[in-house]
Amino acid sequence: MDMDTLKKLDSAHLFQNYGRQDLAFTHGRGEYLYDVEGKEYLDMVAGIAVNSLGHAHPAMTAAICDQASRLIHVSNLYRIKEQAELAEALIGISPDGLDKALFVNSGAEANEAALKLAVRHTGRGKVIAVENSFHGRTAAALKITAQKKYQEGFACLMGEFAEYVALNDVESLKSAFDKYTAAMIIEPIQGEGGIRPCSKEFFRTARDLCDDNGALLICDEVQTGMGRTGEWFGFQHHGVVPDVISLAKGMGGGFPIGCIISSDEVSKTLSPGTHGTTFGGSPLASAVALAVLRTIESDGLVKGAAIKGKGMMASLKELLGDEIKDVRGAGLMIGMEMATKAQDLQKHALEEGILLNVCAGNVVRMVPPLNVSQSSLDKVSDTIKAFMEDI
Predict the structure, then answer these.
(1) Tens digits of per-residue pLDDT, 34-51?
(2) What residues contact 1, with CB distance under 8 A and at least 6 apart?
(3) Minimal CA–CA distance to 380: which of 30, 41, 39?
(4) How many Cα atoms within 13 Å fall on the side-chain side of residue 215?
(5) 391 pLDDT more than 90
(6) DSSP states along 244-256
(7) What is the distance between the alpha carbons of residues 212 and 187, in angstroms, rounded to a whole number?
């Protein structure tokens, strides 16, 4: 199917709620994608930090084919071997004390589950969130997504349970906590908000305030988790442990799955009938996620992300000036804030066969597969440098 035919089909039959680029891919291999005309693209977007192992990874392909040939879905009415095995593996990489997992299908669902867990566990009705955050588009997750542009038109669905504080404003954070606070939810690095890291002081203060006020600290690791930042979890950069972790995106390597992880004590809050999901932790989703986790572990991709990301950020920081305002992030979650040329750079990179993403208006987001090669990262750096020399 050529692009013109595809565009007509898209326009005729799909909701037009996405600002899609005129690109369509037929297949991928590693960090590369190939469009309908056969052109090769270096993928620095990875499905928005989803394709941890790139495209068509043999471990994922084998897990999908093997599990699909035996059992895809049975529902959570029964015990599921693959789900239990995945939970064991996730708990194995989690800090001591976080030893129970609940599986869902996406990051938004994980955050909804975390919020329900927190308010039920504490018996309170207030959640503190951070300005410029992004936690999902379902009702409660949308309320704690502290960006008006996403909430506009949906106020009647969201309730009034959230209070917002500025990122890394410790005094604002202290004043927000009170006896009604059930939880605080925080991203170690804001993703959609423009790759903005949480400071160590802010994160540790949040932990202390939750302890002092009997509230739960929820860490949204949907984008930062599973090795993306050069640690298994983004909060590990700050030396403290949350009460609840939410995961999705890179956890399934492209197959939809999400989860929350908490302590045994907190997990008991959700007794049978209080929360559930039809598809969460299906045999197929669990088998794929387990293959992803084991491959990240066996191939040393967490440490690799740290090393490669440090090198790439150092290279990009050489370009800091009037146009490139900042380079920030951790591991292979890199944001390059530009003054005016982010969209122009994205267009130029596309012409050079590189997929980049622009978020938060003027931030070039780079979240490639964790197994991206060093030569590919060098190509991206060289392309950006050449662009800067020509403007």
Answers:
(1) 999 999 999 999 999 999
(2) 9, 36
(3) 41
(4) 27
(5) no
(6) EEEE-GGGTTTS-
(7) 21
pLDDT tier for residue 2 given thresholds of 50, 70 and 90: confident
Whole-prediction pTM value?
Answer: 0.97
- Cα–Cα–Cα angle for 201, 202, 204, rounded to 5 degrees: 65
356 closest CA partner among 380, 337, 323:
380
Q: How far apart are CA 309 and CA 237, in angstroms?
A: 14
Kindly tell me the sign of the dihedral angle through the C-alpha atoms of 43, 45, 47, 53: positive
Identical fold for domains 3-56+300-390 and 60-298, yes or no, is no
* Fold of the domain spanning 3-56+300-390: Aspartate Aminotransferase, domain 1 (3.90.1150)
Q: What are phi and psi for residue 171, nearest 5 degrees?
A: -65, -40
Question: What b/e string do you get for 309-323 counting C-beta neighbours within 10 Å, with b at 16 or more?
Answer: beebbebbeebeeeb
Q: pLDDT at position 1, please?
A: 85
Q: Where are the domains of the chain?
A: 3-56+300-390, 60-298
Cα separation, 69 vs 368, whole angstroms: 30
**At 254, which amino acid appears?**
G
State the maximum Cα–Cα separation within the chain, in Å, rounded to a whole number.
62
Which tens digit of pLDDT belongs to each residue from 270-325?
999 999 999 999 999 999 999 999 999 999 999 999 999 999 999 999 999 999 99
Give per-residue pLDDT as tens, 170-188.
999 999 999 999 999 999 9
Q: Six-digit token pair at 30?
A: 């590693």
Q: What percent of the chain has pLDDT over 90?
A: 98
| Length of the chain (residues) | 391
What CATH number was assigned to the domain covering residues 60-298? 3.40.640.10
Give the C-alpha distances (Å, rounded to integers) separating 231 from 75, 178, 302.
Answer: 33, 32, 6
Where do we find the tokens 């009938």?
273
Coil, strand or helix: which one is 260?
strand
User: In whole angstroms, what is the distance from residue 137 CA to residue 108 CA?
Assistant: 6
